[in-house]
Description:
The protein is an alpha+beta fold and 245 residues long. The chain contains eleven helices and seven strands. The strands form two sheets. It has a four-stranded mixed sheet. A three-stranded antiparallel sheet has the order 4-6-5. Strand 1 and strand 2 (18-21) form a beta hairpin. Helix 2 (47-54) packs across helix 3.
Amino acid sequence: MTVALAQDWHLSLLGAWRLRCGSTTxxxxxxxxxxxxxxxxxxxxHRSFLAGLLWPRSSETQAAGNLRTTVWCISHAFPHLxxxxxxxxxxxxxxxxxxxxxxxxxxxxxxxPEVRIPDAYMDHxxxxxxxxxxxxxxxxxxxxxxxxxxxxxxxxxxxxxxAAGEPGRAVIAALSAVSIEPLRESAHLLLVQAHLAGGxxxxxxxxxxxxxxxxxxxxxVQPSNQLSDIVAAFRPHCGLAPGLR
Length: 245
């Protein structure tokens, strides 16, 4: 493979693991994928920490040896990707990582709420699942952290659209959040509020009824009074069952 310049590397961890050199996707062995993903997500870490994290069932000596071999393979196959210090490992500063880009974009959303967010980014947030199919403990923790960040960002978008008098876009943002976490009441609250803001009372009560039924079925609890009271006035007109209060 042609030696890559540092700025040519792009690591994708959302949706699926992929490493690109320029526009070309390069094959990477599973062991190397794990280490690259780990430093791509966690940043600079001590070698002993990474060895224990990636090879938890191996002895300290075996884990350190596995790490050395993996670092050697990455350094020789993918120049300028990994920055290997005497005691630490990290990706080169110029490597573009899609998770880092997502985090920066969400941070800007909170720092500059007046800036309009492109509708296409809503779809990106709804689909940006971190490393699906990876089940190591450290990955699961990061998956949940990114999922909560996506949910909060989508709810922020829904609130912004409601404040701007755009109930249709607010409905889409709230539905995107609901699709990620069907039992998240704050997302359903925004969905009901968005339907009502658009004058769709039946849709609001239908959304509430479906949420209340699922909540009762899966967790044995009912929606909060805050959510229930919003639709209580429309029960006689939309057929909301009294037991779903």
